[in-house]
Design a protein that fits this description.
heterodimer; A: 137 residues; mainly alpha; 6 helices; B: 150 residues; two-stranded antiparallel ribbon; 59% helix; elongated
């Protein structure tokens, strides 16, 4: 194992900013900012639909504002294969629905709440992803 | 209106956080998962940063910003009537039970509420996490007595 591209400072600062976003959403709306759950609810549930939709709009606007105001270019590298992107997206959608959460819902909100279910989910999806990268990556 | 502004603002801030940490780049996330070869531990620092900020707030507000669903009023003198013992009163919010029963059914949600209240009358509480787990277990046990799978 070699450690490469490690950016602890920017990662930590970014994490703190995400933490504030989670708190604002939680105190303001009384709900947890789990991104997969919010996307799911926007598509299938009428409850809080506008709120959920606006959160996703904000999620897209955030990086646009960031790049616009700081003029920092964020690299974006992703596989060019459309079938892989579509099937990966489907798997993430199905998996987060069955597992009731993703990196934000389980990994940040759930671990902050010391939820055993979330800690288990985070460990398992990380291990699965690491194995997947090892096998296909 | 307020919740819409809150949602939009927190979405934007969340997005800025993802940008600052470079986590909007799929390659950056993949770097974290490439544990055995070219590992980039940055994602751990993102999660730590977020958890350090949100955990104390979650702890402070645990169960406190929800509307009350059930209240118990234990009686000071436990009166006996024939073979029954009067423990106190339980007040249950019809609106909350009704709201919850949209994705479930009314009598199940109602039973959950009175069982919770009943355990309070018996002296249980859930101030500590440990007691909360104990109470939850008892609730499930009683509930299962009513909803035994046939």
């Amino acid at each position: 194992m070699n450690i490469v591209n490690f950016t602890p400072q920017s990662a930590f600062v970014g994490g703190i900013i995400i933490g504030f976003a989670v708190i604002i959403f939680f105190i303001g709306n009384g709900r947890l900012a789990g991104v997969s759950g919010i996307v799911n609810a926007t598509l299938v549930s009428k409850q809080n639909r506008t709120d959920n939709f606006l959160f996703i709009v904000g999620l897209v606007l955030g990086p646009i504002f960031y790049v616009f105001f700081t003029k920092i270019n964020i690299p974006f590298l992703i596989t060019p294969s459309l079938p892989i992107i579509i099937s990966a997206g489907l798997l993430v959608g199905i998996g987060t629905k069955i597992g009731s959460g993703c990196t934000s819902g389980h990994g940040i909100c759930g671990i902050s709440l010391l939820s055993l279910r979330s800690i288990t989910a985070t460990i398992i999806f990380m291990i699965t992803a690491i194995i997947t990268v090892k096998l296909i990556g | 209106m307020m919740s819409k502004i809150v949602s939009l603002i927190s979405g934007i801030i969340f997005g800025v956080g993802l940008s600052v940490s470079n986590m909007i780049n799929p390659e950056k996330v993949l770097g974290f998962l490439d544990l055995f070869d070219q590992w980039d531990p940055s994602l751990i620092f993102v999660m730590m940063g977020a958890i350090i900020i949100s955990a104390p707030i979650f702890f402070l507000f645990r169960n406190k910003n929800k509307p009350t669903d059930v209240l118990s009023f234990p009686s000071d003198n436990k009166m006996k009537y024939k073979k029954n013992l009067y423990l106190g009163d339980i007040a249950i919010s019809y609106e909350i039970v009704n709201k919850r029963s949209k994705n479930s059914n009314f009598s199940l949600e109602f039973d959950k509420m009175w069982i919770h209240g009943y355990l309070h009358l018996l002296g249980h509480d859930h101030i500590k996490n440990k007691d909360f787990m104990k109470m939850k277990k008892l609730e499930d046990l009683i509930l299962n007595k009513f909803y035994k799978k046939n």
